[in-house]
Structures are given as C-alpha cells and as structure tokens.
Design a protein that fits this description.
This protein is mainly beta and about 120 residues long. A hairpin with a 6-residue loop joins β4 and β5.
C-alpha cells in the first residue's frame, strides 16, 4: 500500500510562515498540494511535474497563493515541499499531498494549517 507522509502543518498568526513536507515511498513523476477549507471544494495549490522529455521540472502555483507560496521537490528523497509565507486567514484549510505513481494518484492523510 502506497502511503504519503505529510508534516509541517500547525497554527500561525497572519503574516507568518509554515513549511509543509510530503514524502512518497517511491519516485513519482508528479506531486501536488491541494487544500480544502470547511464548506469549500478542494482546490489545487501547487504541483511539480517531472517529465522524461521536459528537460526539467514544470511547476504550477495557483494564482491565489502566487508570490506567497513556493513549492520544491527533492527527487532523491521523493519529497515535495510547500513553503508558505505571508499566510492569511483564508489560507486556513486541510492541506493534502498527492502523488502520481505509475498512473495512479495517491493521497496523504492531510495536515491542518490554521491562520488566526
């Protein structure tokens, strides 16, 4: 069974920073962060795609967090990171890591981020 291990959530005041980590058990070609706030739909936050023919990583960051959040990937550790700066109350949500492994998407258990 594939399990993604997430860490780094917590509570922070507005303007603060947090760094989320996600580790997959094997190499993946795409890893992403999603978030879901109460009574809202899950939304994509950031993703990194490492294609065989792309010549490097392709990174996506949602407009709602662009300029505040950055994502990075350590392929040697099969890990994805989300650096969140200048956090706002509206960033409060459960953050989920997802990874595509051999054509199947797997999800982490989620880590809570609370900004207040």
């Amino acid at each position: 069974d594939v399990q993604l291990v997430e860490s780094g959530g917590g509570s922070v005041q507005p303007g603060g920073s947090l760094r989320l980590s996600c580790r997959a058990p094997v190499a993946t070609y795409c890893m992403a962060w999603f978030r879901q706030a109460p009574r809202k739909e899950r939304e994509g936050v950031a993703a990194i795609y490492t294609g065989r023919y792309t010549g490097g990583d392709i990174t996506y960051v949602a407009d709602s967090v662009k300029g505040r959040f950055t994502t990075s990937k350590d392929n040697a550790k099969n890990s994805l990171y989300l650096q969140m700066n200048s956090l706002k109350p509206e960033d409060t949500a459960m953050y989920y890591c997802a990874a595509a492994i051999r054509g199947v998407w797997y999800w982490g258990q989620g880590t809570q981020v609370t900004v207040s």
